[in-house]
Each structure stands twice: as C-alpha cells, then as structure tokens.
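stage 2 :: seqdesign
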C-alpha cells in the first residue's frame, strides 16, 4: 500500500522541482543587472516570486499523507514526530548556516545563526535574517510542522476543515488590511513571513488531502479540462490587476488547482526520473542556490556572455547545475554520517 501511494502521487516531485528551479531563475534575474526586455523576462520570471507558496500547499498535503491519520489515531508519539522533522531538515540546513556564517562572520551573523539553528526563527517578531535570506520559507514551513498536531484538530473532518479554511481566508484579508501596517510591523516586513497570513495555503493542502480520492478520480477523467482551466487562470493572472487582498487568495486557488492536477495524473511531464531526482532535493536546492550564485558573482561568470539573454541563461544553468550537484552530494554525505552515528549508538 505504501508503494502504491508513492507511485500515485509521484507527480508531486515534478511540482517541487518546478517550484525550486523557478525560484532559482527568479533570483538570477533579481541579483543580476541584465538588459533584457519582453514579457517572459519582465513579467513571467518576476511572477515566479510566488512559487514558495506552492511549497506550502504541497507541504500541507504531504504532511497529511504521512502523519494525519497517525496523529488522529495516536499511532505516533509527539517525540517521534518532532524527532523525524528535525532529522529531515536540520542537518543540511545547519551545514548551510555554518558555511554562510564562516563566509561573513560578525556578531550579528552569529546571533542570527543561533536563531536559525533552532529552526524556530519564524516565531520572532518582525524577523528578517541576513544569513540564508531565502530560508524564510523553511521557517514558516517548520512552524507549520510544530503546529501540525493542532492543524490535524482544525481539519479533523471535512466540515471543520471548510470552516477553518474560511477563517484562514479572513485572516489573510485582515492581515493585509490591518495587521501588516506600520502600527504593527516594521518597515519592509513581508506578510508572507507570517504563519497566519500563510495558513490558507497549508489548509488548502489539507482539504485536498481529505478529498484526495474524489479529486484523483475526477482529474484522471477530465485531465485536459483541468489543464485548460489552469492555463486560463494563468493567462488571467497576467491580464487582471488583482487587489492585494485578493492576490494571495487567487494564488491559493491557482496552486491548489495545480496540486489537484498533480495528484490525479501520472503524465511524463511531472512524473519522470529527472523530476523525481530534482524534486527529492528541491528544498535543498532552494536553500543553497544563493551560495552558488554568489560563486558565479565572485568569479565574474555572470557577465561572461555579455548582458543579455545568453548571459542570463548561462548563469541560470550554472546556478542550477551547481545547486543540484551540491545538494545531491551534501545530502548523500549527511545520510552516510547519520547512519554511522546511529550504528555507534546501537
């Protein structure tokens, strides 16, 4: 049964891979001063800044796949649950934090590194980290892990889950209109750093889990129709100037539909060896790619081919290959070290 479930939702690796690689090409654009015009670069690539929200919806769904029933039926202790979460995330993240600290050591960096290593930094008020700046996503997701037993209570059944979704939608609206103003947060604070603003994405993933059987059957039957709706919504996103309070909810619906499509299809676009490989290390790629981009900057690689499309594509390729290589090797080494530590304990 476990293998069947993995095969059934194998396309999720494709979504993770797309999200991770999309963020990489976005940050190459943001960190480089290329003179490139056109919709695909100025509008499409810039819009990829929202892809971390897709990680959140996927996390809500996948955490339910792994732990929802176990927690509801008391088949896993809180000690075991939290131990697994730290074991999954902490070693690789700690490696990156230490490396970043050594490259730019200061008292402030040391303090931030301490907060990072606890993986609870998303609880800090108005937090903004200079070490591994992209780690805000992990901070919010790990806070979701911490709250997951309570999350299971909030979606204990379908009726309660829909009520919870309504509350999280309202929370996102009031965050935009009230709680994220200058009286409540410091200048430059972004709403997406807050778990209550992002709660709608995790709950959306949880609701999709509750209806996974129906959704999977329906998408398999009307696959091309679902894909057509997805592309219509995609086009409308660039054509309609959504108000700020609607924008986040539109993204929630958009990414939720994409997740529904992924769990109901086994097409080769999302479900292939390359997607599985990259998807399995997607969070690692997301966390380390800024370091690879920094290397490209130090050796002057960003402008080897001028200041146009060729230079941009080459820098993207270098960053992606470097991030994938580092992530895969580091994960393997950490896995071997972890196994040796376990054997010594036994």
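stage 2 :: out
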């Amino acid at each position: 049964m476990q293998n069947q479930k993995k095969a059934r939702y194998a396309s999720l690796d494709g979504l993770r891979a797309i999200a991770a690689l999309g963020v990489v090409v976005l940050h190459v654009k943001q960190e480089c001063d290329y003179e490139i015009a056109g919709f695909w670069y100025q509008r499409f690539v810039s819009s990829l800044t929202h892809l971390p929200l897709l990680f959140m919806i996927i996390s809500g769904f996948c955490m339910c796949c792994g732990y929802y029933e176990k927690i509801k039926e008391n088949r896993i202790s809180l000690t075991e649950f939290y131990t697994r979460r730290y074991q999954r995330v902490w070693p690789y993240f700690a490696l990156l934090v230490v490396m970043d600290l050594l490259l730019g050591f200061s008292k402030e960096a040391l303090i931030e590194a301490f907060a990072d290593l606890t993986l609870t930094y998303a609880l800090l008020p108005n937090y903004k980290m200079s070490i591994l700046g992209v780690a805000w996503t992990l901070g919010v997701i790990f806070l979701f892990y911490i709250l997951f037993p309570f999350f299971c209570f909030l979606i204990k059944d379908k009726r309660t889950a829909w009520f919870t979704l309504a509350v999280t939608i309202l929370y996102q609206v009031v965050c935009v209109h009230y709680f994220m103003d200058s009286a409540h947060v410091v200048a430059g604070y972004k709403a997406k750093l807050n778990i209550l603003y992002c709660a709608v994405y995790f709950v959306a993933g949880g609701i999709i889990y509750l209806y996974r059987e129906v959704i999977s059957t329906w998408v398999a039957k009307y696959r091309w129709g679902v894909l057509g709706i997805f592309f219509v919504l995609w086009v409308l996103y660039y054509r309609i100037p959504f108000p700020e309070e609607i924008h986040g909810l539109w993204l929630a619906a958009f990414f939720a539909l994409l997740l529904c499509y992924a769990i109901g299809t086994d097409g080769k676009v999302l479900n292939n060896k390359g997607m599985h490989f990259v998807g399995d290390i997607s969070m690692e790629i997301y966390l380390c790619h800024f370091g690879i981009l920094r290397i490209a900057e130090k050796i002057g690689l960003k402008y080897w081919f001028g200041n146009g499309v060729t230079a941009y594509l080459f820098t993207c390729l270098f960053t992606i290959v470097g991030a994938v290589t580092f992530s895969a090797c580091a994960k393997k080494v950490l896995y071997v070290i972890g196994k040796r530590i376990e054997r010594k304990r036994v």
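stage 3 :: structure notes
- Confidence is low (pLDDT under 50) at residues 1-7.
- Residues 79 and 85 are 10 Å apart (CA to CA).
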